[in-house]
Specification:
Blueprint (H helix, E strand, L loop, with lengths): L35 H4 L6 H23 L5 H27 L1 H25 L6 E3 L6 E2 L2 E2 L1 H20 L3 H25 L3 E3 L14 H21 L12 H21 L3 H15 L2 H4 L9
Antiparallel strand pairs: 1-4, 2-3
């Protein structure tokens, strides 16, 4: 009588979810990592706890600085502007390192910081792609007539824009388009606000959006073009770790939503810029608001 072989259960395949870069350091060298359930086990080290809460702490300080902005004026406001950008870039670089690893930080510095400086230097020297404009001397040290905090501002907002696109869109091209549009439409708040403070100005700011004098429409188109190139480069340079959404993205997603909501409120109520509040609420909202329902659903899978 033939003996029956016991059936061997088939192991189901799984798609790995990118885990916070420093949150896997509690695993012992002898622990096998073939089972996804084992990846989340192991004692948490003090470094792990710091990695989890440091981005939230930086975000809290950044939010406090932005709340103080309408309460200041003159040189104090200019100094606070510089401090806010430094806090913002510290948040994005720290989050990128802790959540996605050194390659993501290098990619962000290469594409947003160096790329942002290059396009700004070209813009100031040639008038392309943003129009003919110049910076005042109120935003700190300059190199090639570009304040050094300007490319840092690109770096600050490029990272949350990309992570939000990972959560909302499917496919690399759709994510590049959404992240680029989000970053570009943020400028609907940024440029009118900075022009009103006389931090920079255009030589010929026409045609302009209705109700938003001083900023030519061509500037926004230049922002969109460069933002799309930036996101395409970032999506490639950051590698596998930055191609899927992760739970550790929560602080960056909170920053993205806060930036939109606080900009609308500040322009409409505190800065007396109602037209830019309306344009930004409408156009940036198309890139930001689809994130809200995604926060309660599993992130989309696929690249």
């Amino acid at each position: 009588m033939p003996t029956r072989r016991p059936s061997v259960p088939t192991r189901r395949p799984f798609l790995p979810t990118p885990r916070p870069f420093l949150l896997t350091r509690g695993l012992t060298p002898t622990r096998r990592l073939t089972d996804p359930a084992q990846r989340s086990t192991g004692p948490a080290s003090p470094l792990t706890a710091a990695a989890r809460w440091l981005p939230w702490g930086l975000l809290g300080v950044l939010v406090l600085a932005q709340i103080c902005y309408p309460l200041t004026e003159g040189d104090t406001r200019a100094h606070l502007t510089v401090a806010t950008v430094l806090l913002g870039v510290a948040f994005s670089l720290t989050h990128a390192l802790l959540a996605r690893g050194p390659r993501a930080v290098g990619a962000l510095l290469l594409t947003a910081t160096l790329g942002g400086f290059a396009v700004e230097a070209i813009g100031v020297a040639t008038g392309f792609p943003f129009g003919t404009y110049e910076y005042s001397g109120r935003l700190g040290p300059r190199l090639l007539d570009v304040p050094l905090i300007i490319p840092l501002a690109w770096t600050w907002m490029a990272w949350p824009a990309w992570l939000a696109a990972l959560r909302v869109a499917r496919g690399r091209l759709a994510r590049i388009a959404l992240a680029g549009a989000g970053l570009a439409t943020w400028d609907l708040f940024l440029d009118p606000q900075m022009v009103a403070e006389h931090y920079w100005r255009w030589a010929d700011p026409v045609p302009a959006l209705p109700g938003v004098p001083g900023v030519p429409i061509g500037n926004y188109l230049g922002w969109l073009g460069f933002a799309l190139l930036l996101m395409a480069a970032l999506s490639t340079a950051a590698g596998q770790a930055a191609t899927l959404p992760a739970p550790s993205d929560a602080p960056a997603l909170a920053l993205w939503l806060w930036t939109y909501a606080s900009s609308v409120l500040a322009h409409a109520v505190f800065l007396s810029l109602p037209a830019s509040a309306a344009w930004g609420a409408l156009l940036m909202g198309t890139a930001v608001l689809p994130l809200i329902p995604r926060l309660r659903t599993p992130p989309p899978v696929g690249r």
